[in-house]
């Protein structure tokens, strides 16, 4: 057998062996060993053996180069795909809803919103009755009732109530002052639509908070003819409602409506001033002497603003003494005499 034949046979055996093993471009040492054995068997010198091994080495180098190029291209493609995928799939940052913080964070003590002088003028010899509230920083109320007995001439009955309602800003419901404005409008509307009211009129009140309205009407009850005045005022995110009514009982003359309106407006102005003072603005309406038996207006513990996504803790219902209820259920003479 010639040396050329032996060389070609050795190469064919090596390629066949790689094909059987599924090795595309990874020549093994077995091909080289076969070439060496064939060279020794035929007495071929080292030069011929090196020449026989050269094609195998060149083939392996070419395959190795192709394989590295494919891997590099593959890894580069994967990197580009990953980079593109991450940039495309990354969610864009959505803006968090924000709302302006409420201006006022506290309410004054309701029974300390009016000065002793004003209380003596509007409800002489009256005792304060604190309204119940689960959160004094958001809602508070106080009422006073007075029965001035004039003997055989009869008596004069007066009833006064101050309600305070604070609205907190909330990312879902809106800013506190806007919520207070909506409630203010509702309170005015309720006062204008009291069942059984006669001669209802309303007008704006100047110099009382950001906006204020007084609603007045007559209301006939079994005890007598009552004159009702309701002043609704808004200052920032707080709504102040003052109810003041009076009647002449047991033959006493009916009080003058204009006098009662002036008293209600005066009480509303003092209550608004007390709200401002409780939040560090100006002087409180009761600072000139404080209400009878009550300390001067002081701020309730302030609350932090709730502009997070947490649900709002701002009040959503009206105070216990709404204008309609105040007029219809304002203290009767018998109840007033007991107090």
Automatic annotation (TrEMBL):
Residue ranges with Gly residues bias: 281-292
Record's compositionally biased regions (Basic and acidic residues): 10-32
Region (Disordered) residue spans: 1-42, 68-95, 126-145, 271-339
Domain of life: Bacteria
Bias (Low complexity) ranges: 293-339
Protein known as: DUF3558 domain-containing protein
Natural source organism: Streptomyces galbus
């Amino acid at each position: 057998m010639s040396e050329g034949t032996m060389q070609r046979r050795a190469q064919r055996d090596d390629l066949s062996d790689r094909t059987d093993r599924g090795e595309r471009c990874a020549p093994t040492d077995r091909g080289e060993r076969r070439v060496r054995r064939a060279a020794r068997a035929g007495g071929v010198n080292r030069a011929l053996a090196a020449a026989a091994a050269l094609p195998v080495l060149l083939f392996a180098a070419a395959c190795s180069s192709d394989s590295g190029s494919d891997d590099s291209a593959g890894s580069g493609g994967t990197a580009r795909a990953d980079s593109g995928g991450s940039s495309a799939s990354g969610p864009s940052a959505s803006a968090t809803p924000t709302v302006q913080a409420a201006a006022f964070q506290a309410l004054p003590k309701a029974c300390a919103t009016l000065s002793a002088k004003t209380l003596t003028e509007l409800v002489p010899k009256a005792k304060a009755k604190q309204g119940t509230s689960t959160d004094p920083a958001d809602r508070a109320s106080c009422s006073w009732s007075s029965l001035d007995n004039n003997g055989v001439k009869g008596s004069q009955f007066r009833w006064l109530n101050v309600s305070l309602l604070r609205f907190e800003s909330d990312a879902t419901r809106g800013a506190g002052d806007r919520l207070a404005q909506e409630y203010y409008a509702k309170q005015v509307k309720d006062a204008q639509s009291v069942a059984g009211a006669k001669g209802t009129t309303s007008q704006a009140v100047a110099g009382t908070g950001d906006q204020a309205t007084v609603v007045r009407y007559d209301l006939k009850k079994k005890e007598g003819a009552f004159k009702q005045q309701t002043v609704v005022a808004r200052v920032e995110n707080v709504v102040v409602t003052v109810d003041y009514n009076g009647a002449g009982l047991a033959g006493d003359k009916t009080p003058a409506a204009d006098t009662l309106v002036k008293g209600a407006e005066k009480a509303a102005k003092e209550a608004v001033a007390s709200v401002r003072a409780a939040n560090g603005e100006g002087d409180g309406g009761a600072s000139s002497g404080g209400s009878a038996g009550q300390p001067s207006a002081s701020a309730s513990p302030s609350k932090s603003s709730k502009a997070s996504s947490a649900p709002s803790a701002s009040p959503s219902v009206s105070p216990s003494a709404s204008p309609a209820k105040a007029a219809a259920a304002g203290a009767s003479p018998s109840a007033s005499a007991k107090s």
